[in-house]
Structures
1.
Amino acid sequence: MLEGLEGLYQDALAALQKAKSTSEVEQLRVRYLGRNGELTLLVRSLREVPPEERPRVGARLNAVKEALEAEIRTALERVRADEERQALERDRVDVTVPGRRRALGALHPVTQTIEEIVDIFVALGFEVATGPDIEDDYHNFTALNFPPDHPARDMQDTFFVDESYLLRTHTSPVQIRVMESRKPPLRIVVPGATYRHDDDLTHSPMFHQIEGFLVDERVSMADLKGVLTYAMRELFGPETRLRFRASFFPFTEPSAEVDIGCLICGGQGSQCRVCKGSGWLEILGAGMIDPNVFAAVGYDAEKVSGFAFGLGVERVAMLKYQIADIRTFTTNDLRFLRQFV
Ligand code: PHE
């Protein structure tokens, strides 16, 4: 029996040494020390050993059992450490690998330009107002002092929705809507889409304007020049020069078209393609609000005066970013749009 015991002990030691996982060690524990384990059975058969040999065999059995228990604990610690190391190896993260960049959307260049311009006027104390894209003839034309036969009402310029409604041809009707519902003093900017029957390199049937107007007592043309000069220098740089040319709009008197010194040639180049050699670029329509407009909204033109201006957003964006074709804003070519992220 002692020989069998020693053989069993050696086998068990060898097997434990080869065990690679906690479950293998656990299987060996069951095989030798479990309820019907090989060593357990030997201990149980001790009673068959002749009484005089029992103490010696019993002592050896106990010693082997304890040694085996200790070996199992050691083997367990070893395979657990191995398993932990393997797990760490398997789950290892290389923190030096560059991350995957998420594709983020960005604001459209026209929207960016609108925000930039609106921010300049908001910093001057102007409020933002908006109005409907679908307007009636009264707000788009009549209240703005367009005579009944004015060519701007013509089918060739205006998109009509039906007899009563049209797509607004400018943001000026919002002047009327704001003045109808509020009293001066007013400082308002109106960003929005506008529509005209036009389509070429520099005209799109849908485009954007920013309207601005200020109504108070004793507002003068000097205020208009001061505000516009400040705003255009904020927008195009401190060296920007402005030129006011006499012009005509039904809703302003006097009226002016405002040019800025060419951003490309600085007004120097006779060959300049952008200003066509003139040195100036038209950027705004403006003027003092016509007394007939004040009358239409119930203001007393003897008491209040005001200026108004309208600016083409795409025009500004094309100059700022040197874009040759207005249609690139609406063709959604990602290679174009990604330049404005
Ligand atoms: N509404 C005019 C246009 O679209 C621009 C403008 C606005 C002119 C305000 C004068 C005053 O052409």
Note: Residues 109-340 form a domain with the BirA Bifunctional Protein; domain 2 fold (CATH 3.30.930.10).
2.
Amino acid sequence: MEKAKIFSDITERLDTLSQFPKVKDSSSISELMQEHGISRRDFMKWAAGMTAMLSLPSAFTPLMAKAAELTDRLPVIWLHMAECTGCSESLLRTDAPTIDSLIFDHISLEYHETIMAAAGWQAEANLENAIEKYKGKYILMVEGGIPAGSSEFYLTVGPHGKRGAEHAKDAAANAAAIFAIGTCSSFGGVQAANPNPTNAKPLSKITNKPVINVPGCPPSEKNIVGNVLHYILFGTLPALDAYNRPKWAYGIRIHDLCERRGRFDAGEFVQQFGDEGAKKGYCLYKVGCKGPYTFNNCSRERFNQHTSWPIQAGHGCIGCSEPDFWDTMGTFEEPLADKLYSSISADSTADKIGIALLTVTAVGIAAHAAIGAVKKDK
Ligand code: FSX
Ligand code: SF4
Ligand code: F3S
């Protein structure tokens, strides 16, 4: 579609959305920013960054800012299943609130067990009322794997004694859009790792509606908020990869934009943590980095307002946004080496061949040549 047409469609959509009443009576986003000492200029800079992250032309920046302002028109139900709550915490527990976390506050969270005040009957009634009141209009975000055995009573919440899986199924049935937040909800996560004692499943396995996966253990705050903004702007599913991950966030490989990539190409590796190579910022492949097998935007967007990310902090990527990474990515601090990586890669089976060639002996120039050849094939 032509750029001008997309621009006018989005403008129209935002105009319609702005006619909707606010879901809750809260301060506007500009008031919130002011309260936290964030200037309009910083906000516009953030909006420009988000626009680029979603691969939109810079002329769309004012639309992005408007979409952020309209996040209070959108009811959101957030359910917790089996997980560590790290996904919510990564958004909520910043020492100084970021624009992303303020937007998360601004979204009308109708139900979120970590932060709501209600308990018992009241909490359960809130969930049921929200589903009823906003039927077909709310966004459902689910965090955690879903223990899905029919005879177990895992995650039974509230006086009606509904199981977690039932809560998730019912909330999904009436949602306008569904996001699996984190690797647990996207792919099962740590509780689905062998031997999976609770029969934990990804959200997509318990509903037949489309689920957009936002993996990462935890996913970055930018990827969570970016998905909400994408939905406000377009109201449709984003382009997805083979694992239903939005391509704008998961379409690149950690290894391809890693700041240590030059070291990998030159065959300069950390041999063990704390050695001279580690001090010099050498490549972490031999101490277990799974960046060559992992698709996510961490090396480009980083975490905590772009300050750092795992590899910058000195540890290899553990592949936390890949399906079944607990079982398939081997020991965290050892290379996968020539163990055949059996799952398919995000977009290209040719990648699998390149990856299989990454053996301990061939690592370095030969591996680079293999990956380079694959890239040229694309
Ligand atoms: Fe899972 Fe989110 Fe890992 Fe934790 O809850 S993705 S265990 S960071 O927090 O679901
Ligand atoms: Fe970076 Fe890891 Fe690739 Fe080395 S192996 S360049 S540390 S992503
Ligand atoms: Fe996860 Fe690797 Fe990024 S471990 S946070 S995908 S660098």
Note: The chain has two domains: 2-250, 254-377.
